[in-house]
Amino acid sequence: MLKIAIYGKGGIGKSTTTANLAAAFSTLGKKVIQIGCDPKADSTMNLLGGHPVQPVMDYIREKDEEPEKIEEITKEGFGGIVCIETGGPTPGLGCAGRGIITTFSLLEELELFETYHPDVVLYDVLGDVVCGGFAAPIREGYAEQILIVTSGEKMALYAANNINTAVKNFEDRGYAKVRGIILNRRKVENEYEKVSAFAEANGLEIIADIPRSDDIIKYEDQGMTVIEGDPNLEISKTYIALAKKLLESETNE
Amino acid sequence: MKQVVVKTSTYSSDEFGVCSALYELGGMVVMHDASGCNSTYTTHDEPRWYDMDSMIYISAISEMEAIMGDDEKLITDILETAEELKPKFIAIVGAPIPYMTGTDFQAIANIVEEKAGLFCFGFQTNGMEYYTKGISMALRELTDRFCIESVPKPSDRMRVNILGATPLDFSVNGTVDAIESWLSKKGFEPGCCFAMGSSLDEIFLASSAHVNLVISYGGLEAAKLLEERFGIPYVVGVPYGQVFSNLLGNTIYQASMMNRHQIAYAAKMEYGSESKKQVAIIGESVLCASLASAIEMEHPELNCKVLCPLDTESLLLRPGDQRTPEEDDIASALKKADFVIADPLYQTLCPEKEFISLPHTAFSGRIFEKEIPILIGDLSALKL
What we know:
The complex is a heterodimer. By secondary structure, chain A is of the alpha/beta class. Chain A has helices at about 15-25, 55-65, 95-110, 110-115, 130-135, 155-170, 190-200, 215-220, 225-230, 235-250, and strands spanning about 1-10, 30-35, 75, 80-85, 120-125, 145-150, 175-185, 205-210. In chain A, strands 3-4-2-5-1-6-7-8 form an eight-stranded mixed β-sheet, sandwiched between helices. Chain B folds into three domains: about 15-130, Nitrogenase molybdenum iron protein domain (Rossmann fold, 3-Layer(aba) Sandwich); about 160-265, Rossmann fold; about 275-380, Rossmann fold. Chain B has helices at about 15-20, 40-45, 65-70, 70-85, 95-100, 105-115, 130-145, 165-170, 175-185, 200-205, 220-230, 240-260, 285-300, 325-335, 360-365, and strands at about 30, 55-60, 90-95, 120-125, 160-165, 190-195, 210-215, 235, 260-265, 275-280, 300-310, 320-325, 340, 355. Chain B has a five-stranded parallel β-sheet, sandwiched between helices. At the A-B interface, α3 and α5 of A face α6 of B.
């Protein structure tokens, strides 16, 4: 099972990347689960054609009890991708990080993996590793690899560096390792060079170079990924190539 | 009303369940919690505290350590203390504060284990679950780490381990010793006991048993693991009363012959039960279901129903028994009972009913400890 957590600065395109990657894996015949780990609960939106899944925290808040069946908090979207959103507490209250950990424990109790037998699990995590809860997806038993999404913008690289440093601090804990960088282009001058310099300085590989594409916005407006919209587009092929690369490296390992 | 206890008491928590299960095994147990929050552990939940030494500590986590996620201080303190005390293993036990800050106890345990060169367990307890869960976690982990190799079985007698013994369920009134004596009288050789009266070295030899006797929910997961790993079948039941204990003894022989786990009290004669006097028994599932069967076998005029507020599995209850997680559930179920057998603190829910007191340490602590009867092989102390 390929288990990947996707991190990066807020607004950098993590959810877009994750959803397209999920769609790409699915197109390659893989059973995929995508878990949005952000109180905004918008990670899987474009896999579900505008009919979002109820976030786990919303379910618990509304019913005042935990779900008893995994089907109550999952929804299958494009290509049979199983979509889950942790959601979070009422904005300004509670503890979102704790909500993620609780959701993960619940998914284990409800036998998520035993029910769906996924080939690939993608964790789409809120902007930065701000507290223990947001490191939960990379703990032992969850994601084994981390992909950091960044553009060439200064603040995006700053966040990428913070994430990489946080992961290094966890080296002796048996947590996930950084697999590589996804360059999500923002039309920044010398963008590749800037990201490449960061990657080289940290001993990381740029595993994918995603061009800026209006097609992404066009299909997102229709509630879908570009892969669902038109798998023959260049941008779609880029995501599929990334999915293939990740699968190949898993096979080689 | 959900999760509200108005008239009765609350059960001991999961972290104390872990501590209780590991108390006698020579390990160092560290509750990662603010100092002061755990006084109930020593004052109510651990009757061995003043008579038997055990390396149980509180980390005394501070506000800033919680905010900063300063696991390093905990790790350093544990390593320094372990160096001094030379425990046989280390257990780090979670409490409400680290639970809320998402402390990863397994990761910390991995680090401590590597640095200290000792087995180290990290228990993701939170002080909000029942002690039954803590016992279950502790005994399962103990089995997983220490019962690795297959040990030859004795050929002259059938060896039987006891799984799930803690003072929280069985007090320190001699009940566990009585279970061992009962095993001997039935022709079995008592093996090790998880985890009262046995050393860690004896636990290492658990795989030499022919059968495991599970005497509480807390012992079930360990029994399942021993069955999976070594093919040792388990039998669930507490040898209460004369007739039921005879049945339990036969069930142990059967389980060994058939090499299949069994629940000794699984069968219940439902026919005509409505015309009988209705008895409600409140408490831990294996103890209460065993007691219910023992009473029905010796008093055919009685029909018993177990009300279980604690963690259990549906198979550990008998037909007609009920899980009652909320106080309201218990109060409602008691309306149909003619009389009640339970910890005295439950009497406030049914003051008008005939009530037989059966104190439970995990519920009322030491308040009634001198009144806890030994019912192994003989129900007469219950004064039915």
